[in-house]
Design goal:
It is built from ten helices and 14 strands. The chain is of the alpha+beta class and 369 residues long. α6 runs antiparallel to α9. The two termini are 22 Å apart.
């Protein structure tokens, strides 16, 4: 597997780097340089690190696991770090796809460095039998609100800025915009009067369901049932034309995710609805919180299983989790979430709770043949 390529631009190399074993990346200057690029990019684009992984999170993610192989590359020009690339290779499902990401230091853009990084990522992917490449690019909301021209998604809803650097780069290299996700933010605390009023209305349709919650670790007696819901999460959310296969979750995969969150410094809380007649879990929602960046909570999965929809369970589990989050993480000032722009039902719940759009993310894909 080639991990270096230095032709096309004199003095440029693109090399795969090792991922540290320790979450503090002690003694690993290459990985620290990779993470420093990410930090600088987020500060330049967003003005904060709300959407940026911590060093520990980055280390643990890029170590990979039995479900996904992950690689990190650094680009150097005459010995100076000027960019990075990452590659994810699913191993359990979607085994003909690869996730690619390219980042070039702001001072070195528009010199062909990003093109060289992408070429290396795509070459490695093809050698691993991957026929479809996926990429994600987040962008602030302000230019959209100001009326900037948009490139519409090919198969989903919404668009991204035609003249953004990410859009120009993706289109130039043969990627099509398949889906757009809305990034929304909710200020905390949510007024209790609002939560109460929404809850009263929702409970009128939720007869026959009870509500449970857990922190960090799903109870042993529920983990297999919970894993089945996690499998549904990968197929029941809108996917536009991305063509992904559903993920197969079981108890060990749930435990691996929980352990990774904890090792990276994140706590989690889950609220779920249980169908009283059958005992099966009908809905769930997850929030995670990082002690290193305590102001922001991430809204992870939210799902209502088919057959249990129409009972306002999505609203009720979210209300329960928001209340619990304020108790657990009193320093948090906001919750951040992402939803496909065509996911009107979940967006309507978020809007009712007070979420406001704060950015968006383009999901790009290139298929071979």
């Amino acid at each position: 597997m080639p991990t270096s390529n230095s032709f096309a631009i004199s003095g440029l190399s693109v090399e795969r780097i090792p991922v540290p074993e320790s979450p503090d990346a002690n003694g690993e200057p290459d990985f620290r340089a990779f993470h420093d690029l990410e930090v600088a990019h987020h500060m330049d684009l967003w003005g904060n690190l709300d959407r940026c992984s911590t060093l520990a999170e980055a280390v643990l993610f890029w170590q990979g696991n039995e479900y996904e192989e992950r690689h990190v590359f650094l680009a150097r020009l005459d010995g100076s770090v000027v960019g990075s690339g990452t590659l994810t290779l699913p191993l359990s499902e979607n085994t003909t796809t690869a996730g690619v990401d390219v980042l070039v230091h702001a001072a070195y853009r528009r010199r062909g460095i990003g093109t060289r990084i992408l070429a290396v990522l795509e070459q490695v992917s093809r050698e691993r039998g991957r026929l479809s490449f996926d990429g994600y690019c987040g962008e602030p909301l302000a230019p959209v609100m100001a009326g900037a021209e948009l490139l519409e998604a090919k198969s989903g809803t919404g668009g991204v800025l035609v003249n953004s650097a990410s859009a120009r780069f993706a289109v130039h290299h043969g990627y099509s915009l398949e889906q757009v996700e809305t990034n929304s933010t909710l200020p905390l605390p949510v007024p209790e009067a609002l939560l109460h009023d929404l809850e009263v209305v929702a409970l009128q349709k939720a007869a026959g369901y009870s509500f449970i919650a857990w922190q960090d670790r799903c109870p042993d007696e529920l983990v297999e049932i919970f894993a089945r819901l996690k499998s549904l999460m990968s197929t029941e959310v809108p996917l536009a034309g991305l063509g992904w296969e559903g993920e197969r979750w079981d108890a060990p995969r749930v435990r691996q995710e929980e352990a990774t969150w904890l090792a990276g410094g994140s706590d989690s809380v889950v609220s779920a609805a249980r169908h009283d007649a059958t005992g099966e879990l009908a809905a769930y929602t997850v929030l995670t919180h990082r002690s290193a960046l305590p102001a922001v909570i991430y809204q992870e999965d939210t799902l209502v299983a088919p057959g249990h929809r129409g009972h306002r369970l999505g609203m009720l589990v979210k209300i329960a989790n928001l209340r619990r989050a304020v108790e657990l993480w009193p320093d948090a000032t906001s919750v951040m979430t992402w939803n496909a722009s065509e996911n009107r039902h979940m967006l309507a719940i978020n809007i009712a709770l007070g979420f406001k759009p704060s950015g968006f993310e383009g999901e790009w894909q290139k298929r071979l043949g």
